Amino acid sequence: MSNERQRAKRRERWTSRDFIIKDELYRSTTGIIYKARIRGRRGHVVLKERFISELGRDHNIQHELEMYAKAKHPHILKCLGYFWKVEGRKTLSLILEYAKYGDMRQHIEGRKRHFDEEKIWSILKQLADALAFLHANNIVHRDIKSSNVFVFDEDLSRVKLADLGVSRWMSSDTIMLRSFYGTPLYAVCIFFSFLFDFYTTFLVS
């Protein structure tokens, strides 16, 4: 059996019993995000638990999972798998990489000095590479902000773009999207296109 098939088979077997919850990182009306550890393994992962009942009748609850399956890139957060929980409140949990050094918002708010220019360009290049990959695969992120950029090295030399929950597929004939999603503070206007992703990337820094 190939490595890819072995990984796929393992992903299908994930259950809530495979994880030890260490901390609650965030809670909203649609779900909870946990820091967790896989039983019998070192290191941590993030469990992004979505309440099926809160996602809306017409919402595709596997949308973000499908986006992550397509978005395999060194500077996009990895989705390691998923599992359903049907006992009690029904949920779908994504198993995501854990960023030890938090997100860019934490680094920006906790910093007393400006970032040096070389560091800014390094971060922007990584995000631009991630966006170019998404756009080449006809995906618009639509919610680029500092809290969706995660830091994997203490010196900020490696960052990854995350949260594909409101991202959108675009066909080759699509010029712009006419639905409003994302965070208003980072929005240019109510019309979204590939250019919007790049604009908000620069707002991050």
Question: What labels would you give this structure?
Answer:
alpha+beta, 5 helices, globular, Transferase(Phosphotransferase), domain 1, Phosphorylase Kinase, domain 1, 205 residues, two-stranded antiparallel sheet, 2 domains, five-stranded antiparallel beta sheet, single chain
- Per DSSP E runs of 2 or more residues, the count of β-strands stands at 9
Poorly predicted runs are 188-194
How many H/I helices? 5
CATH homologous superfamily label of the largest domain: Transferase(Phosphotransferase) domain 1
Shape descriptor:
globular
Strand order of the largest sheet: 1-2-3-5-4
- At the first level of CATH, the class of the largest domain is Mainly Alpha
Could you tell me how far the N terminus lies from the C terminus, measured between alpha carbons in angstroms? 45 Å
Average pLDDT works out at 81
Topology-level CATH name of the largest domain: Transferase(Phosphotransferase), domain 1
Q: What proportion of the residues is helical, as a percent range? A: 25-40%
Number of domains: 2
N-to-C series of helices and strands: HEEEHEEHHEEEEH
Largest beta sheet, briefly? 5 strands, antiparallel
Kindly provide the radius of gyration, computed on alpha-carbon positions and rounded to a whole number of angstroms. 17 Å
Q: What percentage of the residues does DSSP assign to strands (E)?
A: 15-25%
